[in-house]
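Exercise: predict the fold of this chain.
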Amino acid sequence: MPIALILLLGYSGLLIAVGLWIGRRVRSSDSFFVAGRTLGPGLLFSTVLAANIGAGSTVGAAGLGYHDGLAAWWWVGAAAAGSLVQALWVGPRMRRIAAERGLRTVGDYLEFRFSRRLRVIVAVLLWIGTLAILAGQLIALSTVVTAVAGLPKWVGCLLGGAVMTLYFTAGGLLSSAWVNMLQLTVLLGGFAIALPAAFGQVGGWSGVVSGAPADAAYFSIWSNGASGWSYLFLLMPAFIVSPGLLQKVFGARDDRAVRFGVGMNAIVLFGFAFIPPLLGMIARSLHPSLESAQLALPTLLAQDVPVAIGALGLAALFSAEVSTADAILFMLATSLSQDLYKQYVRRDADDRQVLHVARIAAAAGGAGGIAIALIAQTIVGTLSFFYSVLGVCLFVPILGGLYVARFRERQAMASILAGIGVMLVIQLATGGMGFGGLTPTALGLLASVMAGAVALMTSPSPFRESRHA
């Protein structure tokens, strides 16, 4: 058995052990859902950053760098921009409302601000997208295991799915926050050591240039191939209003923790955004004929750097994928237990019963993610679907609800239906190409904004008071 695989298995056992140990302290649904609203800046920073650096930010971004060059920076850079907006404006305001009203999930906020009907519609849309992104993380995990030991895809999917399901089910957000701190240390340390080692193997920047395609656009940071500034439309809205990230913000103890914790996460992301694309470009120079671009980063770490550094880098990759996967389970478990079970199945359920259902939902979500991962093919394609649904569905309702007093259920429903409808029609009609340089996601987001604005201007009750009053 390869030593790197032995280390990964040992590291997996450590993550599970820490999660189970912290999980012993979780005796209520409040601790499971929002960590008792006790997260300080440090824990919030680590759990949000660990959630944001996942399959797309590592294996996916390196694959884009392998194919498109420096323009792949925007895959993580756009997420950093969205995180900055969340840190300075949206996050603190949402946290205050959640604390004042005892809200635990974004679904709770949608019902408080709009209606139960809108809560259910959004929950159903997000459950579909949530399983897609969970599958994307597990696909990335399978590439790591394949690169390390040559094992089939299903082994990696099962290993990663089992690890994150076990430690998250034990303690929810509280377990995740502490496990994420350990994962983040390995993640950032591994990439910090792996990048200079990889540059040394390729002969420095001149080696990257000599092995690059002849097209000068490969070294343009603005746009090349599928990558570039257009990722702002796909990713930035999703990272402002992601339920998984906002619900971590609900666990913060005060506004300062949100501004500092999420803000530092954004700053780190702006810098980290360069690392996976550069590693992908190095892999292009060393392995110009890989069967799949998403194998670029695992192949580089498994074959081209010293064994110890490669093992640390692969552990960093494993940390990235598992930490983001647990954030997705967080969204799934809390939504199913709070938005469905508590609201429609058993409204009189006590705290113990809600906690029990949340743990069952986490286990079921993990199994569903594994099943989809075994069928799906690409990481970036799978994640793009989730980010599209998330941004188009939630961006206008959440921001309209926060900042426009007259923005009510009618306007929110119009924005959701128009955005999702336009995005899907253009996606099918153009094969994902869009029109006029705008992607289906960008056009769907534009339609969502316009529909919400028109519904607002034609509202029959322009002077209704906001429920925030």
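Check your answer against the key: Residues 462-469 have pLDDT under 50 and may be disordered.
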